[in-house]
Amino acid sequence: ATPTALMVGTGRGAQLGILIKGPEVLENTRRADTIVLDKTGTVTTGRMTLLGVHTAEGTDETEALRLAGALEHASEHPIAQAVATGAAERVGALPAAEDFVNLPGLGVQGVVAGHAVLVGRERLLAEWAIALPAELDQARTEAEAAGRTAITVAWDGEARAVLEVADAVRPTSAEAVRRLRALGLTPILLTGDNKAVAEAVGSELGIERVVAEVMPEDKVDVVRRLQEEGRTVAMVGDGVNDAAALAQADLGLAMGTGTDAAIEAGDLTLVRGDLGAAADAIRLSRRTLGTIK
Ligand code: ADP
Ligand code: MG
């Protein structure tokens, strides 16, 4: 393509809500045959809500919400914000947390009101050799089958509650996935979240290939493996935990609604946080570079 065509392409991109870091990006946009989609905050809104609380026998629900809410108040994770806000709505003011530690991809730990508290995925509890009692395990299984994320709460060495959180799939995501497919791209859903939740979201969007329970530092390897299979990989993400994968991808697309780390790592920003703009970007690059009319 001529330099003029590239300039026109990037200018048209800006009109469509796509910021392209340089005209050379269009070539990789054109060639992409696979598109890896982060789940939380990318195909979903990332605005999570606390929808349910299940306590173990003998555990007071108010106590569970106070301790979990207090600890999550110190974290910026979307799940943490849902738990802190939902807990405050239900039980009022939350105590302060001490010795707070954020464990990316796992959860949080700290001390609240003299109790050593853990909030996070089951794997976090497993690392401390804390098992879920049967009634909580069942609540977790049911929540996940319904496409909700189950968060476990433990303190003083025992699992005491399961919290259900969920966000909504963005209204534009299903149509965007359909368009990406029509452009010949294979969509793959990638998430640190549980497999059942990921599959529920995948089936809602018509995405068969789902890679779940991936630790933040391993997302980049998922992209690399796809490249080793000979694919040209586009990746769409929003989080700090997506930055390395966005940089590794042949084409990194950052949600404009996402973190600065993701935007810096991407080649292209979807300003409005609408996945449909990813399809627009690919169409635009193919037109600009003359592969479709
Ligand atoms: P995603 O890839 O969907 O953006 P993350 O890698 O941030 O998700 O987190 C993966 C999983 O780790 C979450 O689904 C949740 O189970 C758990 N987790 C992470 N951070 C927290 C937190 N602050 N509180 C509770 N659970 C958390
Ligand atoms: Mg995300």
UniProtKB/TrEMBL annotation:
Localization per record: Cell membrane
Family to which the UniProt record says this protein belongs: Belongs to the cation transport ATPase (P-type) (TC 3.A.3) family. Type IB subfamily.
Designated name of the protein: Cation-transporting P-type ATPase B
Species, as recorded: Streptomyces marianii
Entire protein: shown range: 407 to 699 of 751
